[in-house]
Automatic annotation (TrEMBL):
The lineage of its organism: Bacteria, Pseudomonadati, Pseudomonadota, Alphaproteobacteria, Acetobacterales. Keywords: Receptor, Signal. Coiled coil: none annotated. The keyword Signal applies. CDD domains: PBP2_Bug27. Residues 1-23 form the signal peptide. This is Tripartite-type tricarboxylate transporter, receptor component TctC. Belongs to the UPF0065 (bug) family.
Length: 337
């Protein structure tokens, strides 16, 4: 198999114009049910399930989406953080929820990675979920504590080789894209690090700031404010190009490792079986809300790249990722149970 540090890990949906929203807007809007047979929806509060602890990029995105949808849907949209088991607790909760569009998931790569990492999974990422909208994409960023004697990736490699496994590299959790990306980065650099898993990017960044860990590979939005404040130091981002939010930070590829790329996707999903009119409305309202300048500009400033594809394009992405991850996980050597 080709060196995985030189292959693109993610086949992301093409950026196409978002479809026009269907139906009326505002608190009194109704989904476009056939012949008006169904009652008004939603008739009570919605909840957005975030599978990580507060503070990480998924949590930031979940709260942004909840605020943006509360007005157009005419009901409160409440964020709930359900952590544990590599996000499987949250995934199972949504997969088993009533398919009424009132319980939504902010999903990302672990939804399609975990079936290849865990021997006992109670959900299927394709069969048990209805994709609504791919929301954003973001690179990972390698950040280090201020006391670490590494100002760039070359010095990080040298230090890692000197310490011979004594350098700690944390991630959002076992099996997360940060974990797998860290394995691939170590393979590219020829460095052995000690993995430290957390329950989300937020707690990991806090411990990095406190100096409890040496380095962290995490989705950029979870760390960007700490980098800007000078409380941690960014060495490289894992996209094909520098992030507009941190233009001074080079990519891993331009730091001497051409072809290295790890980019995460994050999107909104519901339980399989949710009625099509509800999914259609949620997609339309989400696209409209995410396109508002105050929302879009805020997300871009935090390091996100906004996605604009259709529901079917997002569904194709989920199917493709679910099909390809088993081989990637086996090649990386990552295991959870």
């Amino acid at each position: 198999m080709r060196d995985l540090s030189r292959r693109r890990l993610f086949s992301l949906a093409a950026a196409l114009p978002a479809p026009m929203a269907l139906g009326a807007r505002g608190a009194g809007a109704r989904p476009a049910f056939a012949q008006g047979e169904a009652p008004a929806w939603p008739d009570r509060a919605l909840r957005v399930i975030v599978p990580v602890a507060p503070g990480g990029s998924l949590d930031i995105l979940g709260r942004t989406v909840a605020r943006a949808l509360t007005g157009p849907l005419g009901q409160p949209v409440v964020v709930e953080n359900h952590t544990g088991a590599g996000s499987n607790i949250a995934f199972d909760l949504v997969a088993r929820s009533k398919p009424d569009g009132l319980t939504l998931l902010i999903g990302s790569d672990p939804l399609t990675i975990n079936p290849a990492l865990y021997s006992r999974i109670s959900f299927d990422p394709v069969r048990d979920f209805a994709p609504i909208a791919e929301l954003v994409r973001a690179p990972q960023v390698l950040v280090v504590k201020n006391g670490l004697e590494a100002k760039d990736l070359r010095e990080y490699r040298r230090l890692g080789q000197e310490l011979g496994g004594g350098l700690t590299l944390a991630s959002q959790g076992n099996g997360s894209i940060g974990h797998l990306g860290g394995i691939l980065l170590g393979q590219a650099l020829g460095v052995l690090t000690t993995h430290v898993p957390y329950r989300g990017g937020g707690p990991a960044v806090v411990d990095l700031v406190a100096g409890h860990i040496d380095s962290l590979l995490v989705t950029l939005p979870a760390a960007i404010e700490y980098v800007r404040e000078g409380r941690i130091r960014a060495l490289a981002v894992t996209g094909t190009a520098r992030s507009a939010a941190l233009p001074e930070v080079p990519t891993v590829a331009e730091s001497g490792y051409p072809g290295f790329e790890v980019v995460t996707w994050q999107g909104l999903l519901a339980a399989a079986g949710t009625p099509e009119p509800i999914l259609t409305r949620l997609h339309a309202e989400t696209r409209t809300a995410m396109a508002k300048p105050e929302v879009a500009n805020n997300l871009r400033a935090q390091g996100f790249d906004l996605a604009t594809g259709s529901r079917e394009e997002f569904a194709q992405l989920v199917r493709a990722e679910a099909a390809r991850w088993p081989a990637i996980v086996r090649a990386s050597g990552a295991r959870v149970d």
